[in-house]
């Protein structure tokens, strides 16, 4: 995502924060700063930053459990409206989806319990349940206020995320439970419809009470639910397809003795993203669009393709189903796979080709 900055890397996962997040920090600093001065501004910023640290822990909860189930995690992005852990693929088993979905809110429950313990130790049960403790979250700046706002925010995060509306965590739990009974495609249709109904209800409430942020979140949930429905339909449609069926038999190929310049010519005339380099009947290398352009810049148009092509070829069988192939690209770093059928080399498939289909 553009305008996002990497702030940390945990278990191989980049944690990025979107630039607009700075506006939220400034907004809270200003909100507490105007009645309480510089200390208030620092308090406002501290509340937002610790709160988003809890959101990061929530997303890490999802991510680390996903990794345990063999689902790779591309990155965690922090947006002003919350966090997002981008998984490499959807978990294939409903039970895995269930545990991954629950892990996030569970982190907030654990944090809330720990903060409750701390507040109990510091102030005793009477203070903890008092209106005074609850209100201290809104200032003036104090450690009690920070503790209170973090405690209630974590309770809210756990409860809110467990609303059974896809694509919220609760919706994923709901879908996973349904999928165990009726299968994933039908479970997704039901969960997406329920998600949209709940989102519509939430939007009405948001508009009625004049809470625009709630209405905005409802709109995101509504759109997210439609996206889940479409994704599921596409997945179903391509489930039966194999790698051999989607290879382009008329793809342009290069020869080792071709010049980089003629590869550039091909590149300009087609939308093909990968070129196979073929010697006689044999596949000897591959070149992607980016590699052709990089080679043209580095060694010039007169150099031979043989000198710049990639020779580390990953072979797959033409019968491999597409939904098994897609996760493979995570580890290939932009390389295509070479598809081999009963009659030998059938064509190259890049991540772009497969994601265009599905
Ligand atoms: Zn979550």
Main traits of this protein?
about 350 residues, alpha/beta, CBS-domain, 4-stranded mixed beta sheet, 13 helices, elongated, binds zinc ion
Structure description:
With 358 residues, the protein is of the alpha/beta class. It folds into 3 domains: 4-162, no CATH class; 171-238, no CATH class; 243-357, CBS-domain. The chain is 60% helix and 16% strand. It is built from 13 helices and 10 strands. It has helices at residues 21-68, 94-128, 131-135, 143-161, 169-182, 184-208, 212-238, 243-246, 260-269, 289-299, 305-308, 322-328, 351-357; strands at 4-10, 13-18, 73-79, 82-87, 253-254, 274-279, 282-288, 314-317, 337-341, 344-349. The strands form 3 sheets. It has a 4-stranded mixed beta sheet. Strand 5 (253-254), helix 9 and strand 6 (274-279) form a beta-alpha-beta unit. The longest helix is centred in the first third of the chain and has 48 residues, at 21-68. The radius of gyration is 26 Å and the shape is elongated. The mean pLDDT is 86. The structure holds zinc ion. The site of zinc ion has 5 residues, from helix 1.
């Amino acid at each position: 995502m553009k305008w996002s900055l990497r702030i940390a890397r945990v278990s191989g996962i980049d944690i990025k924060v979107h630039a607009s997040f700075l506006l939220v920090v400034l907004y809270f600093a200003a909100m507490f700063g105007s009645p309480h001065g510089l200390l208030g501004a620092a308090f406002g910023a501290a509340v937002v930053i610790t709160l988003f640290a809890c959101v990061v822990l929530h997303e890490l909860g999802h991510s680390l459990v996903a990794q345990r189930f063999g689902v790779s995690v591309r990155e965690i992005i922090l947006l002003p409206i919350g966090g997002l852990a981008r998984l490499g693929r959807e978990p294939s088993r409903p039970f895995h989806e269930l545990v991954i979905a629950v892990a996030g809110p569970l982190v907030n429950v654990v944090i809330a319990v720990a903060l409750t313990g701390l507040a109990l130790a510091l102030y005793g049960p009477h203070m903890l349940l008092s209106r005074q403790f609850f209100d201290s979250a809104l200032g003036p700046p104090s450690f009690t206020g920070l503790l209170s706002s973090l405690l209630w925010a974590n309770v809210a995060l756990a409860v809110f995320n467990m609303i059974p509306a896809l694509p919220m965590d609760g919706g994923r739990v709901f879908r996973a439970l349904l999928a165990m009974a009726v299968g994933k495609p039908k479970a997704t249709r039901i969960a997406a419809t329920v998600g949209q109904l709940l989102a519509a209800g939430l939007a009405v409430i948001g508009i009625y009470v004049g809470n625009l942020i709630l209405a905005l979140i409802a709109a995101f949930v509504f759109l997210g639910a439609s996206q889940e429905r479409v994704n599921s339909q596409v997945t179903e449609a391509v489930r039966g397809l194999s790698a051999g069926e989607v290879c382009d038999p008329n793809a342009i190929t290069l020869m080792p003795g071709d010049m980089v310049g003629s590869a550039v010519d091909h590149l300009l005339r087609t939308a093909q993203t990968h070129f196979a380099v073929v010697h006689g009947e044999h596949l000897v290398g591959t070149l992607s669009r980016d590699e052709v352009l990089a080679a043209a810049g580095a060694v010039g148009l007169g150099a031979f393709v043989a000198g710049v092509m990639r020779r580390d070829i990953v072979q797959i069988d033409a019968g491999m189903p597409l939904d098994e192939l897609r996760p493979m690209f995570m580890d290939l770093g932009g390389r295509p796979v070479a598809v081999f059928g009963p009659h030998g080399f059938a064509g190259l498939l890049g991540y772009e080709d497969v994601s265009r289909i599905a």
